[in-house]
Every structure is written in C-alpha cells, then in structure tokens.
Design goal:
Distance between the termini of chain A: 61 Å
Oligomer: homodimer
CATH class of the largest domain in chain A: Alpha Beta
Number of domains of chain A: 2
Radius of gyration of chain A: 24 Å
Helix content of chain A: 40-55%
CATH topology of the largest domain in chain A: Aldehyde Dehydrogenase, Chain A, domain 1
Number of strands of chain A: 19
Strand order of the largest sheet of chain A: 11-13-14-9-8-15-16
CATH architecture of the largest domain in chain A: 3-Layer(aba) Sandwich
Strand content of chain A: 15-25%
C-alpha cells in the first residue's frame, strides 16, 4: 500500500506535468533543443562526483560509466539537433487544387507531442537508459513533459541527474513541471503512474515480467496508452561452418568480451550461440571457454539481479543435457551475494528444441552454445525462437549462399541483423533500430535508440485550409525553420510558392 | 458457437496466409506495386454490375458509389506508387567510420512487413473501407498478406471484390494465400481471427464498441498485436461570432450537406456544433434547420444502424433540455425500418456540460447545436470532449485572435483541424491524417487514409555490417530502385560512395 504522502505527491506531480505540458508543447523546436543542450551542460557540471556515485551504487567500473556518460550527453545533444532538423516529423504539405473533383483543400501535416510521459529507468544503464536517458531525452525532444520513476538500485545517481535536469529547466525559464522524478521501490507506485489519466505514454527498459505488467495495466485503462517496453532477448548468433574454420579464435575472443562486458548486463548480450557440429565448432567452443575462464567474476548491479542470475544459471546447468564448458577462474571481491560468474554452457540441438525454457534470457554473463546435427536442425531452432532485439550471423560469403532461408527468418524475427560482429554496442543514429517483435519489445514499430525514437512520443496532426497566420512555423510557406519537407510529394527545403 | 466447417476453413485460411507471406514478403516493391495495379484493373472490369450490387445491398445512391469506387481504385494505384517511391520506408544509411571511438559499423534501415493482417470491412464504405479498401491496399503495399472479414451487410459486393483480388493475384502469379476473405456475421469469428497466432495486425473501421472489443482481444493475446481501429467521433465544429455574422447562410447550406450526405453515415460527419449565443447563431440555426428540412429522408445502410439511429435520436430528443430544431419534411420510400430522418437538435451549454452522454456519436444524419452563454463555456465544452478524428473552426481572422486557446485544445484532441470548411471529405494523400486520440482511434500515431497508412503494417529492420551482396535493393549502394534515402543524415537519391 502506498502512503498518503506518496499519493499526494503523485497527484501534485501529475497536476504539474499536465499544466507544464500546456506551456511546453506550444514552444518551438528551438526552445526544446535549447533545453536538451542545457540539460547536457548541467550533467557535465556534475563532473566526477556523478561517476563516483554511480560506481558505488551499480558496481559498474568507472571507465564503462564514463563512456556511458558520453553516450547520455550525446543522446541529449543529437536528439536536440534532430528536433531542430525536424526530419522525424515527416512534414508534408499538399497545396490546394481548385479544379480537382472534388477540389483539393490545402493540407499540411506535422507532429505534435502525445502528452505527459512516464519513464521507468533501467538499472543496467544508470545514465543512458534511466533518469536522464534516451527515453527522457526523446520525450522532451518530442514536446512531452516527463515523469521518471527512478530505479531504486541507484537512488543517489538518479537524484543527482534529476537535479541537473531541474536546474536546466529553471535556467531555460520553463515551468518546473516539465520534469519530475518520483522515488520509491513500491510496485503499487508503478501501477498508479501508468494508470493515471494524465499520462499519455510509458517508456520502460528492463525485464519481460516488468514490461509486460506495465503494458497490461496501460491497455486496461479506460483510455489505453502506448507502452514502449524494451524487454531484452537472447540475441541468437548463428555460427556458419566456413567462417568458424577461418576465424574461430578471433571470433571467440570477440564474443567472450561481448558476453561478459558490463557483467553481461546488456539487453543485446549474445546469450545463445548456434552452430553445426564440426571440428571448427569444437575449436570455437574450446577457445570461447578458454577466454571466458580468464574473465573476472564481477559484481552484478544489485542483489535482485544477482540472485536471479545465480538461480537461472544453476537451473540451466542442472539440466542433464546441458554441460558446463567453462566458468571464470578469476575471483573478484564482489560484495556478498552479488557475484556474477562468467559462464559458458553447451547443449545439443535436439535438447534445445525439446526444452523451450532454454531460450529464456539469463541476464548476466552467461551464454549457451548449441551444437546442431544438421542445417535443418539449425533452421528448426531459428523458427522456434521468439522475437529478438538482434540476430547475428558469423559467415563467409560462401556460407551466406546456404543461409538464405535463415536470413529470411531473422528478418522476420529481429529488429537488427549483424554480420560478423557482436550485437552489443548500439550506435545512436537514425539508421539504428533497437526494438524487435514481441516479446523483445512491446511495439516493434518503434526504436528506443536513435533520433527516430522521438517518434514514439508524437502523433501527426493535419491542418486543412488553415490560416497562414496560424500555421505552426514548421508548416508556413516561407519555411522559417529551414526544415526539409515534402511539398506536393517532393522533398525540399524551399519555400512553398 | 462456430461450426466445425468454419473452424476448419479458418485454419486453412491462416495456414495459407502464413505460407504465402513467406513468399510475398520477399518480393520487391515492384512486384507489390504490380499486384495493386492489377487489383485495380480487375475491379474496374467488374463494371456497372459492382455499382448495382452495392446499391442494392447498401441503399447508397449510385453517384456516391461511383465516386467511392474511384476512391478505391485511386487508393490501390496511389499506394502502389508510394510503395515504389519508398518514401514511407524512411530508408536510412549510415556508413562505417573506422576511426570513431568505438568504430561505427555500417548501418542501414528499411521497413519489413509485420505478417498476415486481418481487415474488418466497414459497412458505410462498401468499396473504400471494406474488402478492397484502404486497409487491404495498405497492408498489401507493405508486403503483408491479408485476411478480410467481410461485412455481413453487403455480402455480394464483398464477394465480387474478393473475386477481383483473387483474379489479380492469379494473374500476377502469386500464391493464392496472399488474400482471403471469410464470410459470416458471427461475433465468435471475429474473436478467433484476432486471436489466431498467425495474425500480426488488425485493421478495423466501425463502431467504438466493435473496435474496442477487437483491441482488447488483441492485447490479451500471449503475443499482443497492434490494432488500428478507426472508431469515429462527433467531430466538433466551433462557430465563431464574426464568421457567422458574415456567412451564416452560406455555412448553413454547406453544413446541411455535410451532416446529411451519405445519410450522415461518415465517421467525419459533424455531429456537434458549438457557438456563442447571438443573433448570428440564431440565424445560422434557423438557416441550417431550414436546409435540413429539405433533405430527403434516406434509407440507412442496414437495419442495425437504422434501429440504433432511431433509438439514439429519440433518446436525445426526449431529453428535457434538448429541442428539435428541424427534421426532414421530405419523405422517401425507405425500406421498412431503415429510414434515417435528417435531424437538427439544439441545447444550451450548461445542459451539454452536465450530460456527458450528449457527446456520444449518433451515427446517421443527426447533429446537435449547442448555444453557449460565454466563450468560457465554449472552452469548458472543448476541454470536456474526448479524442476526435477532426475539429473544425468557422472563424474570421479577427475571430482567430480570440480563439488561440481553443486551437490549442483542438491540436491536442484531434487528428485533423479544418478552418472554414466541412470535416467530411478525406483527401487521399501523404499530408492527410485520419485517426485521432482515443476513442476516435486506438492508435493516434498512424493514419488510416493516405500513403502513410502503409506504415501501420511494417516495422524497421537495421542491417549492421551487412554483406553488399545480401543487402535488399532498397539499401544497396547503387540505389537500383532510385529511392530517396537518408545517407549519413542527408536526403538523396544518389548512390552511396
């Protein structure tokens, strides 16, 4: 049960978010962009104290945290630039044609923000996907106000970042309600946030159970709202024979890093490797195991994740047809109960096919390598997998000729396809797609990374026969914002004549 | 309960749709475009027999049906052109940068089809929003296979159109399962269709109760799927004082046509007019009533609609503070129980505000005009309304200066804003937005009309470090399809160097 004071705070936060939205949504894209830049600057000003705080709260090493901070700042700045460029708005103008039958009116379309957005911060990205992460940046870029539910695993980090955002809002002379953060680990708080009538969209990064619950609450509202829950996946990797023959050792090293970096706590961690029984696969398995053995055992983000990792790892290894290939030899002073032991296990194709539980994600530095009897068995496994964020092929050009059917399955199952690389490392740009068919995410039509993620929080409005004096700047004849637009189906920055 | 034979048919249809999808989704946009053109041609070949059949089944007059047929054909042809132009795919390429930290891989994004789509035909548009309507055309353009649940109100029309589509598929040498139609009025059939695991999206045009039910079924699936239900609205019209002073009679005639055309059976029919008490409003009400009186009483589409119209009209008029302004003087030989009497009623702002039921859509030639005491009361009403497909302002430039707050409400509440025009008449082009915040539609981020509607049935896939030989044509360096693409954030048709 939530306390009365939390409930009062919630109502206050929502009232402010709704009120601020009425102001914020009318501001120009330049104002929004200025806010995003100001937030990046205020976060920069937090300096090393932010890194140290996050390090204490998450166990993530400071080098990783510094690089994640750069990503967070880049997201604010690049989404700010995208807002001003306006590409994501897909602006379109059709001018009137009087002698059509019936006459065509003047029609102009732009995007408007959905309304206040609730963002659930992730524990594994205390910077890039939490309080001041990509969802917050994208929602603010779209013109929405934001209410963050801070992740309880890093409260001080969340508090510092919220403070920076609030300072930026004040410096930009915007209503304080443009952003708010609520703290508290209570399950009920999440429910109240998603069900509050003021809220118009929800963004979440985390577990399937968490994301699906938010989705269900949101769809059961009187007025259902979109939920962008990015819930992770096992990110299958297909190991084709010729590629393994030529590059087993090199690939094994790359994948050992990809499986264990950040203690395997990435939604794109390759948790499932699938190959054809062969000497090359045996060699690759051996090399990967050897590399995994040398990786230090790291502390996981929090006790919940550590407990779940230990349990799921144990369950997998207890399975009679699943064998341990290697686990870390390198102990490390992990806080009690938080150790995440890097682990590689193996099984055969028939076992994998008959035990659907083996395709479930084990969040942490664990990967399962499946040795298949035939390409048909590989295909059967591919067809049985659920929606995925990514799918990876290790293959030579020669291999690819035999893998057409596999590629076709992956295209239908994944959000991103990788050839001869690792799925971890998600570039922030317009060409990125981070989000895949359910259960990888709840809305495969949108991306959680890259400037196109702004589209999640906006919808189109068409202005018909609208007065030139009233048209928003994006749609005025003169094109005062110098945005690219479709004018009578031709893309141009020119003014409308 | 569904019969065993229907259940067997359903499984067969689904198996074929899934199988055909595996072929159809791999075909180039040119193949899809060719299919859409072939369908238009086969429908054209149905000639006048189609018009006469639809006329008998729907009571819609032949002039209207001819114009709706043109619209249906234009949809197929223009979505075919859009498919080939590729604009809707928002293609984006970022080339590799080796000296980034970390190095940026080559990333290329295009859209792929979601999978088999179930389309529920509407009764009020036997051509443009039914078997061969905009949803079917958009889903086929996206690369999806389609299963139509024919509307039971016009079975022969639906059958003829399905036949034309099947013939086109055969001529194009595509698998028959690209399209199927199921007939039957049973509620359970709709449920089975939406819940079938093969289905990946649902499109619907019709009542709120129907659309919301499909939405709920789809969200309760183990694997939830998107539902694009376009459920109509009252389409509020705000009558500003100066405009009425200068153009009351002219506007009254325009709106009498808009309210009663197609017997008021349009989702964009203006069902609610809101103005400030004044002599001009009295004059407008009088003129509109006079025009409504002269409109013939027409037969409605089917008995269900006619019964519901008669009941809701009666309920509104029984309300003690709602007064009949005018109803049609012109009798017409409508089939028994199908008459839809053109009707204008009026009430005051306070009554409207205290009776939320009055904002519900009455599907048919009915409109309610609300006389308000003050601009504040107009604003209060505007704020109380739910999501709408359209919002219309009748206003002079002078009026607009006082209406800023009202415009701001409409931008947040509607999909399309119209100035000094009528909301009926929905142009098929990229600048159109047909779909508004819930409950007008279940997904305000997409449009049901215009080539952007293709986006409903597709999702993005990113190809990372992909082999040039394997890249889909849309993303190849040479740009063989001559599509506009974003290359390193610059829009161009040039080849990638």
């Amino acid at each position: 049960m939530l306390s009365d004071s939390i409930l009062r705070e919630l109502e206050l936060v929502m009232a402010r978010a709704a009120e601020a939205f009425e102001v914020y949504r009318t501001l120009s894209v330049r104002h929004r962009s200025a806010l995003l830049y100001a937030i990046a600057q205020e976060i920069d000003h937090l300096g090393d104290a932010l890194i140290q705080t996050a390090h204490r709260e998450t166990n993530l090493d400071t080098a990783r945290l510094r690089s994640e901070r750069s990503r967070m700042l880049f997201q604010f700045r690049s989404y700010a630039d995208a807002t001003v460029a306006g590409t994501w708005m897909d602006l379109s103008i059709h001018t009137a044609i009087a002698d059509h039958n019936p006459p065509r009116p003047d029609l102009r379309k732009r995007m408007v923000p959905l309304g206040p957005v609730v963002v659930f911060g992730a524990s594994n990205f205390p910077f890039a996907y939490a309080t001041a992460g990509g969802d917050t940046a994208a929602a603010l870029a779209a013109g929405c106000t934001v209410i963050v539910k801070a992740h309880p695993a890093h409260p001080l980090t969340a508090h510092m970042l919220a403070g920076a955002i609030e300072k930026a809002i004040e410096k930009c002379d915007l209503p304080a309600g443009v952003f708010a953060q609520m703290e508290g680990a209570d399950f009920e708080l999440g429910k109240k946030l998603v069900q509050h009538p003021t809220v118009r969209a929800v963004a979440f990064t985390g577990s399937f159970a968490g994301g699906k619950q938010l989705f269900d609450w949101a769809q059961q509202r009187i007025c259902p709202i979109p939920v962008f829950a990015e819930m992770g996946s096992v990110n299958p990797v297909y190991l084709m024979p010729r590629k393994l023959e030529t590059a087993a050792s090199e690939m094994a090293l790359q994948f050992a890093r990809s499986i264990t970096s950040g203690a395997g706590q990435f939604c794109t961690k390759p948790g499932l490797l699938i190959g054809l029984e062969s000497d090359a696969l045996t060699q690759f398995t051996h090399d990967l195991g050897k590399a995994i053995r040398k990786v230090q055992t790291m502390p996981l983000l929090h006790e919940g994740i550590a407990e779940s990792y230990a349990r799921l790892r144990e369950e997998a290894l207890m399975h009679e047809a699943v064998h341990l290939v290697a686990e870390s030899d390198e102990a490390f002073a992990a806080p009690e109960g938080r150790a995440g032991i890097p682990t590689l296990a193996t099984t055969d194709g028939a076992t994998f096919l008959s035990h659907p539980g083996l395709q479930e994600e084990i969040f942490g530095p664990f990967s399962l390598i499946v040795h298949c009897k035939s390409l048909e068995q590989v295909m059967s496994i591919a067809q049985k997998l659920e929606g995925q964020l990514t799918g990876t092929l290790l293959a030579t050009e020669e291999d690819l000729k035999e893998a057409h059917f596999l590629i076709s399955i992956l295209e239908h199952q994944c959000g991103r396809l990788i050839l001869n690389g690792v799925p971890t490392g998600v570039e922030v740009c317009k060409s990125m797609q981070h989000g895949g068919p359910f259960p990888a995410s709840t809305d495969s039509r949108f991306t959680a990374v890259g400037s196109d993620g702004i589209k999640r929080f906006a919808r189109a409005v068409c202005y018909q026969n609208w007065s030139p004096s009233l048209l928003p700047d994006e749609l005025k004849n003169e094109n005062p914002l110098n945005m690219g637009r479709w004018v009578n189906d031709v893309w141009t920055r020119d003014a409308v004549k």
